[in-house]
Amino acid sequence: MDFRDTPEEAAFRAEVRAWLEANGQKRTRPDEVFGEGLDDAAKLAAAKAWQAKKAAAGYAAITWPKAAGGRGGTAMQQVIYQQEEAAYLVPGMIFEVSIGMGLPTVMTWAAPELKARFLRPGLAGEEIWCQLFSEPGAGSDTGGVRTRAVRDGDDWIINGQKVWTSGAHFCDYGILLTRSDWDKPKQEGLTMFIVDMKAPGVEVRPIHQMSGDAEFNEVFFTDVRIPDSYRLGPECGGWKVMLSTLMQERLSVGGNLPTDLHAHLVALAQQCAWDERPAIEDDRVRARIADAYLQQKGVELVIARGLTAISKGKAPGPEMAITKLIAAKAMQDIAAFAIELAGPEGLLGFEALGGDWRYMQRLWLGAPGARIAGGTDEILKNVIAERVLGLPGEIRSDRKVPFRDLESA
Amino acid sequence: MNFDFSDDQRLLQDAVRTMLAETSTSQAVREVLEGRASHAEAVWHNLIEMGAAATAIPEQYGGAGLGYLALCLVAEEAGRHLAAVPLASSFYLAAEAIQRAGSEAQKQHWLPKIASGEVVATAALGSRERYRPAAPLAFDGQTLTGTSPALVDGGIAGLAVLRIGDDLVLVELSGTGVSRNPLPSLDPTRPLAELRFDRTPAERLAGANGAAVASRVLDGAAVLLAFEQVGGATCILEATRDYSLERKAFGRQIGSFQAMKHKMAEIYTAIELARVHAYYGAWALSSDAPELPRAAAAARVAATRAYTVAAEEGIELHGGIGFTWEMDCHLHYRRARHLGQIIGSEHAWRARLADELIKEAA
Ligand SMILES: Cc1cc2nc3c(=O)[nH]c(=O)nc-3n(C[C@H](O)[C@H](O)[C@H](O)COP(=O)(O)OP(=O)(O)OC[C@H]3O[C@@H](n4cnc5c(N)ncnc54)[C@H](O)[C@@H]3O)c2cc1C
Hints:
Chain A has helices at residues 7-23, 40-56, 75-85, 96-109, 112-123, 238-251, 261-271, 283-311, 322-340, 350-353, 358-372, 377-388, 403-408; strands at residues 129-132, 148-152, 155-166, 173-179, 190-196, 202-207, 216-227, 231-232, 273-274, 277-278. By secondary structure, chain A is of the alpha+beta class.
């Protein structure tokens, strides 16, 4: 057991550090985010410029094979890069779906010409990708999608609606899950495509989130034409393609939690008073700080175990499934407790209360979404119970029935 | 970075697991539970013979010299198999105190005897919580007079390390003026006894350094006990899962009810969280890292939580059968309580964790 860098890792870290120092902009406040004060268009342009620099330096897809535009590096190098980049102002979310899900799916399933067409511009941030799986009637139950794909010569014609599509309003391409065969059971009649988000018949309508932002959207498809060459995987093989996308997400070691949450709690507890004493001296507060650390460090350590497996050439163990489950709820609990520290005054927005509160207030408003996106707590518990503990699957009435008949039921 | 145990360490773990599966049976544990034995003798004999108990004692003092990581995995198996043996008292506590604070002569004399099992040792290194007024216990530099706190394995120990104020005192229990008073224990598989001394010859272990040594030894014990807790919690979760696949109600396996599935998923999550904190503690202990106090406290709190919830819910998810003497569920319920309090409760350790975090943030 050893947490120190090997000589090769230390050398890579030094290289990354030097590059970031020369090219990046360090945070000045712990809660500072990329592009503060810029309007959406300027922020997007700045994000693309950053991604282009990063790709040119070979840091956009560290673990990808060289042939696909990656660096051919190790998972450990990826983590080292992320650790170092964390101190810098970088556009995290904007390219998350591209790099983590969209492009890996293209890499796995697309024909060579399409890979040549899409991978490089995607990595360089010239084109941004979104993921169009969820629909009004198909969220946790993704197999229930109804967006219709009908073959027409060399094309497919798409009609239907997606929802909760993160980033659709600025994305160029998407991976789109459709139903191409209504006579097959639910998960067997699905087909996956690449869709051009600027194609005629695609309409994106932003949805106002509870946090006040508008980061996800409804997307409507009306007679949208997609060439058959943009199909990913076989006809009616969409379910398998989707699982591979989700697997990529797992391997990219997501579910992370900021490593400084308990330190933020300590800082705020030092500023608040409980019964005329600094809150930090109150044992209830101290106990919550300890619990915050247990969750936060725990997630970091579970990921460290997964990485150890990856670095030994093994698949990360099933314990990785718990990271998002712990992280999202911990985020919510820690942020809520931070806000509680100030009592009635804690109800003031950070604009009035002070910038130190921005981070926890943002986290608190974002946490409910984090618990839902990428699988709700309940779905993740089902996954752990079934795949890790070997307990029986849910009783279902929709397995062997043609989707058409389910529909009318 | 490498956050895992080595293949050699895993081999030792496998060997210990195989041995314990054969010897630390429910029946063997119940011999102690029901008072027919003071400890599981065959299990103890084998752990000593394999060199598994004395893995962390250096070779020059009769141990295997394999270090703490190996001992952590032995502890995990001991916990999993509910081993009713003086492993913690002899090896995590007493031997550690002697190793860290003893003079060369004390180490030469006692460590080989502990390593070979010739002497069972126990220790009371102080705790933050108390109910009964502390019985007076006085050390005059040469002799000990008074009553010890309740000691695990006090009934069979031949040697004790006792913290008296800032002193750590070593006392041989075959000496003059020693009497033993066995006490009822909530986990009878880990028996307790109080020792009474009347001008019993004793010697100092570590002068003015006693409190610091005690604290360091308790940190190490917290990590090792966390492995026992993780092992025990995993065992009862697996037993609960297996039972839920056999038992039927309302025409289904009870393990197919989502309330059951989700509860088991939550227990699993608590155990995995405890496991990684225990691993981190193992790293800190084996590399003598400055993070040890924080890592040990985190391991202790997380592992105490995990075993407590696994043992409590383990009975609940079994239903009525889980509440019977014959099922092993209550052995875990009792052991979880024992391990969770024997070196101070979860709450005391959570407070210690907070102290460390706030100190670091300053
Ligand atoms: C911030 C955010 C970003 C998102 N981004 C994207 C995106 O980019 N692309 C995309 O395709 N989707 C995206 N989603 C959608 C997300 O994947 C779904 O919201 C999620 O899978 C839940 O589906 P649902 O909203 O239909 O809820 P439902 O599935 O209707 O769930 C409602 C409730 O029922 C529970 N439930 C459902 N099934 C079960 C079951 N079997 N057992 C127990 N409980 C159950 C759920 O846990 C939940 O509590 C995003 C969501 C959020 C919040």
